[in-house]
């Protein structure tokens, strides 16, 4: 059993699907709850910003952290926070630190202002943890997170593409896609356990 989540991306979907996990065995339920606790811990980390992206996998109480952050202390702090969660047997930290670059910093801020300054995204911007993350590495932009609709996904990509980035990739998912992915994962796990 391997539970996976991109932090900040499907926290709501994980919460909503804990009830759907009723068909899972006890160890799987513990991993699923642990995944939710990991997501909550990262989202509550005050230094976690829209320019960072962290994901997690949980298997038998062991947490593997993935993603990219803008500063080395964030990687270390997140690992320490996760290690303190009750039920975590161990943490494997695969988070990478983005290189220092003035060009990348300028892109980050221009894209963030463009997306979160657009009237379609004002409701996202006022959230405690805005759901669209902007990861810039060597002039290449990746948008991650969850949006309400396909229109928002396409608009965010379009807004991010206007500032001279070498490439813009959208890994944004809609709420429905995030829920479907978790439900599908839960069904596959129940089938595997039979």
Summed up:
The protein is of the alpha/beta class. The chain has seven helices and eight strands; from the N terminus they run E-H-H-E-E-H-E-E-H-H-E-E-H-E-H.
Describe this structure in words.
The protein is of the alpha/beta class and 194 residues long. It has two domains: 115 residues, no CATH class; 72 residues, Histidine-containing Protein, Chain: A (2-Layer Sandwich), CATH 3.30.1340. The protein is built from seven helices and eight strands. The strands form two sheets. Strands 1, 2, 3, 4 and 5 form a five-stranded mixed sheet that branches. Helix 1 crosses helix 7 and helix 4 runs antiparallel to helix 6. The longest helix has 19 residues.
Shape: globular
Biggest sheet overview? 5 strands, mixed
* Total of helices: 7
Low-confidence stretches: 1-5, 9-22
The counted number of beta strands is 8
Tally of individual domains: 2
What is the mean pLDDT?
A: 85
- Measured by DSSP, the beta-strand proportion falls in 15-25%
Head-to-tail CA distance between termini = 12 Å
Q: What gyration radius follows from the Cα positions, in whole Å?
A: 17 Å
- Give the SSE order as H and E letters: EHHEEHEEHHEEHEH
Class by SSE composition: alpha/beta
What portion of residues is helical? 40-55%
């Amino acid at each position: 059993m391997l539970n996976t989540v991109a932090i900040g991306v499907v926290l709501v979907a994980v919460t909503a699907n804990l009830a759907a996990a009723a068909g899972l065995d006890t160890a799987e339920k513990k991993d699923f709850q642990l995944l939710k606790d990991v997501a909550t811990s990262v989202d509550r980390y005050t230094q976690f910003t829209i320019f960072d992206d962290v994901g997690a996998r949980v298997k038998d109480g062991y947490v593997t952290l993935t993603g990219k952050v803008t500063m080395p202390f964030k990687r270390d702090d997140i690992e320490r926070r996760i290690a303190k969660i009750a039920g975590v047997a161990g943490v494997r930290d695969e988070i990478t630190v983005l290189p220092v670059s003035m060009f990348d910093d300028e892109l980050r801020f221009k894209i963030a202002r463009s997306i979160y300054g657009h009237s379609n995204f004002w409701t996202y911007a006022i959230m405690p943890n805005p759901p669209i993350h902007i990861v810039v590495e060597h002039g290449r932009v990746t948008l991650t997170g969850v949006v309400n609709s396909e229109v928002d996904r396409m608009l965010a990509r379009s807004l991010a593409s206007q500032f001279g980035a070498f490439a813009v990739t959208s890994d944004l998912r809609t709420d429905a896609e995030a829920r479907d992915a978790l439900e599908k994962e839960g069904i596959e796990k129940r089938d595997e356990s039979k």
